[in-house]
Amino acid sequence: MRIATFNVNGVNGRLPLILEWLEETQPDVACLQELKAPDEKFPIKAIEKAGYGALWHGQARWNGVALLARGCEPIETCRGLAGDPEDGQSRYIEAAVRGVLVGCLYLPNGNPQPGPKFDYKLAWMERLHAHAAGLVGLDSPVVLAGDYNVIPTDRDVYKPERWADDALMQPESRAAFFRLLDQGWTDAIRSLQPDETIYTFWDYWRNAWGRNAGIRIDHLLLNHAAAPLLRAAGVDRDTRGKQGASDHAPTWVEIDV
């Protein structure tokens, strides 16, 4: 089973590119982030025509997540994270697909830091920790896939000094990410390619794509049951190079189920 995550940076504005990517790579599960569309504007008819069932949690102009399943309907198990009843941002959706539980997440960016946005990022990560703690030991495979907005190490960024003040690379952000791994989650790409230069995001500014000045912030974490099933992981870099593309590239894993 191929499970992919893709921050699309606007699901309707980039719909032709998204459909082209689905046709070319045919992921069994596709987790989409940053829909930037309310629920009623999600392009479900086009998605279904492409052969996918879907769940989505939209929000006007900002955020939004969706989970697509090829040839079937995903079975929703969770929408949003517990712990803050005042949080109205659409950042998490979870479903079962053919025996695998998949969580699709869009972790807060946190900039500018310090400040309330960074505080919200760290608080959201604590809520994710609490939820993930109940999933990591399940007997069934679980994959937490999405835009984590965390650069885990200096190896995951083109020039660390240029990101030193960014919320994505603060010690608190990194520590929270590694506390998640310490629960027992496996960073799929790094487990298979520990020493490779791998990026999943290239800014639109200063020809970052042309210079390969990227960062790795899109991650797929596997629980105890899923990690031994991992067979491959990678990044669909060609998608980022197309005209009008998102600033993220799709990132994926393949597991035996």
UniProtKB/TrEMBL annotation:
Its cofactor is Mg(2+); Mn(2+). The active site is at residues 106, 147, 248. Probably binds two magnesium or manganese ions per subunit. The gene is xth. PANTHER family: EXODEOXYRIBONUCLEASE III. Transmembrane segments: none annotated. One of its GO terms (biological process) is DNA repair. Mg(2+) binds at residues 7, 34, 147, 149, 247-248. Its EC number is 3.1.11.2. Residues 4-248 form the Endonuclease/exonuclease/phosphatase domain. Pfam families: Exo_endo_phos. Belongs to the DNA repair enzymes AP/ExoA family. CDD domains: ExoIII-like_AP-endo. The record marks 149 as: Transition state stabilizer. This is Exodeoxyribonuclease III. GO terms for molecular function: double-stranded DNA 3'-5' DNA exonuclease activity; metal ion binding. It comes from Sphingomonas parva. Keywords: Hydrolase, Magnesium, Manganese, Metal-binding. InterPro entries: AP_endonuc_1, Endo/exonu/phosph_ase_sf, Endo/exonuclease/phosphatase, ExoIII-like.
